[in-house]
């Protein structure tokens, strides 16, 4: 699209794009702004946008009540652990599907996706009972495994579509040079697939971070992540808009910032084979 | 290139993923199936292992069941329509030469990073609240009566919240697809004097077909499981009770695990019918 | 039942294999599941005092929003999950769970605990077969809170014992929707502990009841229709926008912002609305008994948030020590010394109301009177087979109450008429009761 575009058109598109971007971002922006207001200012009508006395008081109150770092750490461990474990299980599977397709490859892939249709509430009792039996309620490792299983189909699929785009000739050349299966995957395939793996990791990290059913229902203290943190601030007694905003900001800030910085990597592999 | 050795190696490599998912699917599903034929009400300490199809009959014959199915279809369908249509428009816009493209893109994808509970809380309290919400401030400023979103237009409100969360995802996938479009083909069409709408219809849209089916498939999987947004905003009142939410009410609010499990099994079956339908379409596209 | 599940589970594939079971490494850690209500959060802030007295016990807090808390706690106790050592539960759950043998008796909370000091109505509601199973952290009834300044301005006078008719008249007079001034704020958010608690008390005062003595649902009675229509009309004329999603917390925020002329809700709210730090109307709040219709019952409920120990706890003794601390007279003194008497958790102990300093608190007397007026064993004008004023103390109530609550919430949102809401509620209640084997 290397065509000359008149500056005026360019400005028009820019104005439109910025307006939409602002509207999309507004709820988040408003929450962050409100988190720096006092409760009284948070409900002032008409509200002030920036001309209020900025205060960190809400963050102090929230931190005093709940140890933010502990929840944050659990979120990182659970989301990170489940993603890495998932990648480790998925890479061989996706490799096999992409380069040694069998008669049932596609059916297996589709079946894997269909396991995501299991409604979580429907199987809460079974999973809860199993976890009691194994003594792994409120256990980070258990959540790592469960979230890994939930996201595994997506991981396999993303990797599969990405691997499929790698030309087969390169592998054959490597094989000619005497590379065995292991080194083929480790030294030829993986480096080529790194962008795809990176975006798979990012997407699944986000999905695991935001998972709010299992992480809330299977934890109490030791393994409780940020989704449980926010559950103690939703609809408390009295005026709470500012404190709720502060807690919300704290819950989403890490992942938002990570998302911003890794945006390019995330987007690059986020095609699910949609691009030919 | 698939030799016999590599075939068995491939099977071995798929084994962990397949076994794990098989276990993940079968174990809870078997137990749920088992419970669904039982009269299992923990609060009464009742457990009668076999009561036949009673739970299924009760679940499907209750008036809430069909309402919930309809609500689910309307909700998922509308969100898909909104995110796909707006996603295409946004992707086209982001493909234009604009100043500060990087920042615009960052702002637009941000909602995708917000956890569902938080986004529901933010929309309910900060945006849609009829007294303190931003929308009510704006309408008062314009001299209008604030609209009461969650009680007057509850289903639309939830659709709006969820669409806001998923629009970035659709936009991103569609944008990558648009960017992969052959520029020469478009220019040729432009040379031929094809008007923009025609170009869109005959060149861009067919090119996007694959991306659109994938957006629909992935979003459907996640949208059928919408929970936090309903729990936080309306708790299933005002005709926003989806099938998932109905199962939740049976299992956790009424603590009737048998009845809820039957509902869960029915939800799995319905979801898989939809999935089968969608995957046929996507599967075809994947082979192309 | 547990046996069956166990064998099913053990024969089944292990899913959660990665975890290592930790036995009793936390022998003296007490995990407390509690609601994010103001009094509980204050208690969390005062744990230093407990730690000083019991250095060998570590407290872990799981503070959750009420609905999530209930769901988590119920799930855990029904499956004997053993996640918590202290549960925050209400008057509804206590006797039901105690009957199942899920709770540890609390008849031995120490010599200086003085269980006889607990307000009799609270003690009765939290006991099963004469044994206390949950110790009240705070107790409440419901009453009218109103804005004395607005009443003066409009030349109205709130009687001590208002009738519904008077309340409706006041509410309509005080409403000025353009100025965002609403005559009355009442619960509308669906839930057995939200709108159904309130609507049930209204129904009681109009002479209605949930069930007759054969457990037939009575929602098709003229009394119910009268009560529900009254509520619906009143809210349409004098209620705030979006009332159908307002629960206790939302109404509290509205009242504190000065948007409500009256608010009929839990007596504990009195200490929040009169607290100048949070409330813009702290100086001008008056109190009156919950209204009636002259048919013999007032619309006031009885509730307690109480602390209990599940029988699956592995730290029963430490948990009891914590409960003894949190529900003691000393704890009340402690709160009084740091936060002032008006912030003391109310409604749990008789001695508090005999304390001359507490008598200075403007809502103390009205709270006690409301509590004493409530009789859960005899909640309605006509005879009923159940216990409980704003709830029906049977395990099915949570499901019934919440489903019926959604019908009334839909009604308030204008999606159906009172007749339709009642007809649907009647049908689903009967359906549920039949399935549960009552009829």
UniProtKB/TrEMBL annotation, chain A:
Q: Coiled coil: which residue ranges?
A: none
Q: What is the lineage of its organism?
A: Bacteria, Pseudomonadati, Pseudomonadota, Alphaproteobacteria, Rhodobacterales
Record protein name field: YcjP_2 protein
Query: Would I find Signal among this entry's keywords?
Result: no
Localization terms from the record? Cell membrane
Q: Which GO terms describe its biological process?
A: transmembrane transport
Listed GO CC annotations: plasma membrane
Q: Which organism is it from?
A: Jannaschia aquimarina
Task: Please give the Gene3D superfamilies that the UniProt record associates with this protein.
Answer: MetI-like (1.10.3720.10)
PROSITE patterns linked:
ABC_TM1
Q: Which PANTHER family match?
A: INNER MEMBRANE ABC TRANSPORTER PERMEASE PROTEIN YCJP, MALTOSE TRANSPORT SYSTEM PERMEASE-RELATED
Where in the numbering of this chain does the ABC transmembrane type-1 domain appear?
Answer: 72-262
Which gene holds the coding sequence for this protein?
ycjP_2
Main location per the UniProt record: membrane
The portions of this protein that span the membrane are 12-33, 71-96, 108-129, 141-163, 184-209, 240-261
User: Which keywords does UniProt give here?
Assistant: Cell membrane, Membrane, Transmembrane, Transmembrane helix, Transport
Give the membrane topology. Multi-pass membrane protein
Family from the record: Belongs to the binding-protein-dependent transport system permease family.
Recorded hits in InterPro entries, A to Z, give: BP-dep_ABC_trans_perm, MetI-like, MetI-like_sf
UniProtKB/TrEMBL annotation, chain B:
Tell me the SUPFAM superfamilies matching this sequence. Answer: MetI-like (SSF161098)
Task: Give the matching Gene3D superfamilies.
Answer: MetI-like (1.10.3720.10)
What residue stretches are annotated with the ABC transmembrane type-1 domain?
A: 69-278
Q: Which domain of life is it from?
A: Bacteria
Q: Which PROSITE patterns match?
A: ABC_TM1 (PS50928)
- Write one Pfam family the protein is assigned to: BPD_transp_1
Keyword annotations of the record: Cell membrane, Membrane, Transmembrane, Transmembrane helix, Transport
Q: How does this protein sit in the membrane?
A: Multi-pass membrane protein
The transmembrane residues are 12-37, 73-94, 106-123, 155-178, 208-232, 257-279
Has UniProt tagged this entry with the keyword Glycoprotein?
no
Q: Where in the cell is it found?
A: Cell membrane
| GO CC, alphabetical | plasma membrane
GO biological processes: transmembrane transport
What family does the database annotate?
Answer: Belongs to the binding-protein-dependent transport system permease family.
What protein name is recorded for this chain?
Answer: SugA_1 protein
Q: Species name for this entry?
A: Jannaschia aquimarina
Automatic annotation (TrEMBL), chain C:
Extract the signal peptide range.
Answer: 1-23
- This protein's source sits in the domain of life called Bacteria
> In the UniProt record, does the keyword Transcription occur?
no
| Gene3D superfamilies hit by this protein | Periplasmic binding protein-like II
Compartmental location? Periplasm
One family from Pfam that matches here is SBP_bac_1
Q: Which UniProt keywords apply?
A: Signal
GO cellular component: a single term: periplasmic space
Q: What is its main location?
A: periplasm
Q: Which family does it belong to?
A: Belongs to the bacterial solute-binding protein 1 family.
Name of the protein described by the UniProt record: Putative ABC transporter-binding protein
Annotated organism of origin: Jannaschia aquimarina
């Amino acid at each position: 699209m290397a065509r000359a575009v008149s500056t005026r058109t360019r400005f028009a598109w820019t104005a439109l794009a910025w307006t939409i971007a602002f509207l999309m971002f507004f709820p988040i922006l408003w929450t962050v702004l409100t988190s720096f207001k006092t409760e009284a200012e948070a409900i002032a009508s008409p509200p002030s946008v920036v001309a209020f006395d900025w205060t960190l008081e809400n963050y102090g109150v929230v931190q005093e009540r709940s140890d933010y770092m502990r929840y944050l750490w659990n979120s990182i461990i659970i989301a990170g652990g489940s993603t890495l474990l998932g990648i480790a299980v998925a890479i061989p599977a996706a490799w096999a599907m992409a380069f040694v397709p069998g008669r049932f490859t596609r059916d297996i892939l589709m079946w894997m996706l269909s396991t995501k249709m299991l409604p979580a509430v429907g199987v809460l009792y079974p999973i809860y009972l199993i976890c009691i039996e194994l003594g792994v309620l409120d256990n980070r490792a258990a959540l790592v495994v469960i979230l890994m299983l939930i996201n595994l189909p997506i991981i396999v699929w993303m990797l599969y579509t990405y691997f499929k785009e790698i030309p087969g000739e390169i592998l054959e050349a490597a094989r000619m040079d005497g590379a065995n299966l292991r080194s083929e995957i480790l030294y030829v395939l993986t480096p080529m697939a790194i962008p795809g793996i990176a975006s798979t990791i990012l997407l699944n990290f986000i999905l695991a971070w935001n998972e709010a059913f299992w992480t809330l229902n299977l934890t109490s203290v030791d393994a409780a992540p940020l989704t449980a943190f926010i559950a103690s601030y939703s609809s408390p007694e009295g005026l709470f808009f500012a404190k709720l905003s502060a807690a919300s900001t704290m819950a989403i800030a890490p992942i938002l910032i990570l998302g911003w910085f890794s945006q390019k990597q995330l987007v690059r592999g986020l095609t699910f084979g949609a691009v030919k | 290139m698939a030799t016999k050795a590599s075939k068995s190696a491939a099977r071995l490599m798929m084994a962990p993923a397949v076994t794990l998912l098989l276990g993940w699917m079968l174990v809870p599903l078997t137990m749920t199936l088992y419970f669904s034929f039982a009269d299992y009400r923990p609060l009464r300490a009742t457990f009668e292992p076999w009561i036949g199809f009673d739970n299924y009959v009760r679940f499907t014959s209750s008036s809430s069941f069909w309402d919930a199915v309809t609500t689910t279809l309307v909700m998922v369908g509308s969100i898909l329509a909104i995110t796909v249509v707006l996603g295409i428009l946004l992707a086209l816009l982001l493909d234009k030469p604009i100043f500060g493209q990087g920042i615009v893109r960052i702002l637009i994808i941000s909602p995708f990073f917000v956890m569902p509970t938080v986004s529901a809380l933010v929309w309910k309290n900060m945006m849609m609240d009829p007294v303190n919400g931003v929308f009510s401030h704006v309408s008062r400023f314009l001299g209008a009566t604030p609209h009461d979103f969650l009680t007057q237009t509850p289903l639309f409100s939830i659709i709006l919240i969820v669409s806001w969360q998923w629009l970035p995802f659709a936009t991103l996938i569609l944008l990558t697809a648009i960017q992969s479009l052959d520029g020469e083909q478009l220019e040729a069409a432009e040379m031929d004097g094809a008007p923009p709408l025609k170009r869109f219809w005959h060149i861009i849209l067919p090119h996007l077909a694959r991306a659109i089916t994938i957006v629909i498939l992935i979003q459907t999987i996640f949208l059928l499981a919408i929970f936090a947004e309903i729990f936080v905003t309306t708790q299933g009142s005002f005709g926003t009770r989806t099938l998932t939410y109905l199962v939740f009410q049976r299992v956790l609010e009424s603590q009737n695990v048998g009845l809820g499990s039957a509902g869960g099994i029915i939800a799995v079956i319905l979801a898989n019918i939809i999935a089968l339908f969608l995957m046929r379409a996507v599967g075809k596209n994947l082979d192309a | 039942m547990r046996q069956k599940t166990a064998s099913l589970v053990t024969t089944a594939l292990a899913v959660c294999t990665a975890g290592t079971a930790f036995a009793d490494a936390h022998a003296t850690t007490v995990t407390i599941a509690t609601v994010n209500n103001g009094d509980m959060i204050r208690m969390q802030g005062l744990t230093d005092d407990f730690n000083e007295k019991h250095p060998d016990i570590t407290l872990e807090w799981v503070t959750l929003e009420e609905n999530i808390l209930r769901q988590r706690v119920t799930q855990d106790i029904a499956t004997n999950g053993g996640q918590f050592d202290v549960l925050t539960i209400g008057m509804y759950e206590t006797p039901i769970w105690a009957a199942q043998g899920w709770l540890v008796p609390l008849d031995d909370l120490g010599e200086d605990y003085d269980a006889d000091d607990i307000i009799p109505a609270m003690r009765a509601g939290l006991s099963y077969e004469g044994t206390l199973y949950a110790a009240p952290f705070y107790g409440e009834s419901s009453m009218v809170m109103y804005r004395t300044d607005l009443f003066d301005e409009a030349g109205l006078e709130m009687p001590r014992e208002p009738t519904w008719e008077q309340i409706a008249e006041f509410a309509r007079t005080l409403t000025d929707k353009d100025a965002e001034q609403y005559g009355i704020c009442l619960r509308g958010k669906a839930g057995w502990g939200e709108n159904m608690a309130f609507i049930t008390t209204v129904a009681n005062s109009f002479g209605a009841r949930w069930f007759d003595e054969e457990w037939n649902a009575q929602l098709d009675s003229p009394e119910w229709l009268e009560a529900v229509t009254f509520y619906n009309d009143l809210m349409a004329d004098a209620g705030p926008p979006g009332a159908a999603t307002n629960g206790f917390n939302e109404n509290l925020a509205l009242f504190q912002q000065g948007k409500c002329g009256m608010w009929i809700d839990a007596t504990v709210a009195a200490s929040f609305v009169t607290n100048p730090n949070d409330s813009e109307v702290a100086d001008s709040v008056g109190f009156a008994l919950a209204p009636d219709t002259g048919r013999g019952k007032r619309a006031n409920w009885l509730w307690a948030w109480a602390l209990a120990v599940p029988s699956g706890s592995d730290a029963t003794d430490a948990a009891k020590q914590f409960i003894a601390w949190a529900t003691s007279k000393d704890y009340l003194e402690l709160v009084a010394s740091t936060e002032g008497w008006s912030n003391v958790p109310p409604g749990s102990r008789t001695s508090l109301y005999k304390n001359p300093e507490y008598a200075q608190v403007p809502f103390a007397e009205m709270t006690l009177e409301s509590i004493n007026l409530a009789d859960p064993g005899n909640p309605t004008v006509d005879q009923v087979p159940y216990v409980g004023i704003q709830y029906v103390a049977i395990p099915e109530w949570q499901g019934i109450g919440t489903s019926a609550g959604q019908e009334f919430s839909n009604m308030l949102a204008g999606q159906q008429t009172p007749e339709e809401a009642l007809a649907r509620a009647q049908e689903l209640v009967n359906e549920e009761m039949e399935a549960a084997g009552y009829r």
